[in-house]
Amino acid sequence: QQQVKQSPQSLIVQKGGISIINCAYENTAFDYFPWYQQFPGKGPALLIAIRPDVSEKKEGRFTISFNKSAKQFSLHIMDSQPGDSATYFCAASGGSTLGRLYFGRGTQLTVWP
Amino acid sequence: KAGVTQTPRYLIKTRGQQVTLSCSPISGHRSVSWYQQTPGQGLQFLFEYFSETQRNKGNFPGRFSGRQFSNSRSEMNVSTLELGDSALYLCASSQQGGNEKLFFGSGTQLSVL
What we know:
The complex is a heterodimer.
Chain A: E1 4-7, E2 10-14, E3 19-25, E4 33-38, E5 45-50, E6 56-59, E7 62-67, E8 72-77, E9 86-92, E10 102-103, E11 107-112
Chain B: E1 5-7, E2 10-13, E3 19-24, E4 31-38, E5 42-50, E6 53-57, E7 64-68, E8 74-78, E9 87-94, E10 103-104, E11 108-112
């Protein structure tokens, strides 16, 4: 079954707006939650990651919010730019699955100028 | 430092054939993982190697196999190709494996006719 569920599948945001992508997981043993960004023709690249001992992590315009009790985490992109247009994947790993990432299905983000 | 290099970039095969894909990790990285990416199933974990040993294996049939050499370079092999094996095959490397940053290559696009 899908270990990590991601929504929405696609997202259109105006330049300067906030993009929000949500993910939910089932396995309580997961303790590492990265977000990857993928451009066409390229492999995914790590954007930002969080561990469950903090509820929020910010790096520049990108913020992860983490809710351990709800088993949910989300990516917020502030001041979205056309260059942010890409596919975003959330992922999770941990416990006996160490070294193996379970990915969400991805969100195709389009930022209009 | 050179990134993760995957060869070939594109490959066309016919059903029943076998194929070998190659991955050169970032220098100093000892862990290599392989993922299959398709529009329908997203990113699915195939296997992970560390110091020439397979540490993790995903839910793929035995037709999918891999190995890692003493210089950390890795190969994956798919025998008796099926139409459904058409996908982008991504290799990722990291220093130790586990919950740390994965660096992905650009992938090998395999088309099975």
